[in-house]
Amino acid sequence: MMDKWLENSTVVKITALVLGVLLWMVVHFNQQNTSGPQVPAVRTDTVTDVAISTVGIDADQYYVSAIEPSKVTLRLRGKQSALARVSPGDTRVELNLSGVDEGVHTLPLKGIIDSSGVSILEILPSHVTVRVEAVQKKEMPVEIQWTGSPADGFKAGEAVITPSKVYVSAPSSRQELIASVRGTVDLSGADEAIQSRQVKLSAYDRNGHKVDAIITPSVVEVEVPITSPLKMVPLQVKLSGRMPDGYSIASLTPNVDHVTVYGPQEYLNTLELYDGLQMDLTKLQLTKDTKVKLEIPLLPGADKIEPASVEYDIRVVPSAERTIKQVPVTIIGANDEFITSIREPEGSVIDVTVVGAPDLVGALTQKDIQAIANVTDLPPGTHTVPVMLNLPSLIYASSDYSGQAKIEIRAKKVAANPSVPAVKDQTPDLGDTSSRDEPEAPTDESGAGNGNGNGQTTGDTDAGTPGDGGTGTNSVSDGSEPGSGYNSGDTESTGNNANP
Predict the structure, then answer these.
(1) Does the keyword Transferase apply (predicted)?
(2) d(CA 1, CA 488)
(3) Which domains does the chain possess?
(4) What's the CA gap between 409 and 429, in Å, rounded?
(5) Whole-prediction pTM
């Protein structure tokens, strides 16, 4: 019977149609199922070495000195694509210290992630141990250190620091280690002032090691003056001219007695005082107390001087006159090859009349006056030379002073020795020496003066011929013959008169 159906074309067609419809339904159903949404799988990931940040602590009162452990691991959960987008900055772990006091505490951690589609599954470990210390604050001065050197010939002055003091906050265990707060300024090659330099500060212990601390403010402003070499020296004024008749200066008081001189170091090394200032008393014509302001001149070699002027407070009084008796006359410039002696004035002393303020003149002594006869380059013979006076400041010789001295210069005599042949030219060439071919008869060189002299000579000097009145007591020669003056130049003298 089946064979008959299969032979029937109508049956075959119907069967084929039914199979086609069934096949279409199967294919269409599978397409609907496969074209629908697919749910992806959820995965986990791990982020290591995540730092712990603290929140909620009062930094003015407390300091976190330790967190153990200091880093943790996060386990994340999310889709594969979301996990792939997570960067290190998207995750953080916070430790909330709100209300926590000084001491050691074990506290939970809170994880935060800023990437969508990802959550924190676990924090490993979930708790940490934290040590909290009380903060101590103290005020400390700021110190500035230099590195490098200014340009050649320049020097750095004292730094101006703003502010000059700062507050240093640190836990009690560390505060006692802090010895200084310092900043550094580089001066290499500087030839002008450093202005408004911002300098960062750090705290240091006594060994120069940095100490972790909070410095408020942490940056200061520094100015450093850069100057050429300088030296402070006394200021000296040179008085010239004379006061009006009948008036004298009792005191001359400057408002500054030292000046600062700037210039090359070689010049400053030779500078002991600054003497370029002059005051012309004749021009001032002072008859009463007054103040005089003088500009300080810039001497050759100096670049600058501070201050640029000086003011003198001058006290003027009526003059007093006084005569100082028996002032010794001293010879300077004597030649060692000759014997130089004073013939006049008698006794090698003069009277000197001086003028000045009563207090100054009244206190004057013989030792305060130098009477000098200069015989430099004078040939042998008798000469009349002026006697110059060196007087204390503000005291003058009377207007009619005209002191003079009569000086004798003669050659040294050479003693004859019978056992030694005479040697020519033993005395300086003073002209015709034909009369000196034969040695002169020996004289008494024992040193005793033979007249009215009050001194004693020793060595190879001429004490004077017998009966000459002991002129050797006033002579000044090669350092071995006494006289009435004081030591000057290459001469040396001793005697009864006081040395000025």
Answers:
(1) no
(2) 173
(3) 42-125 (2.170.120.30), 137-227 (2.170.120.40), 232-318 (2.170.120.40), 320-428+438-476 (2.170.120.30)
(4) 14
(5) 0.43
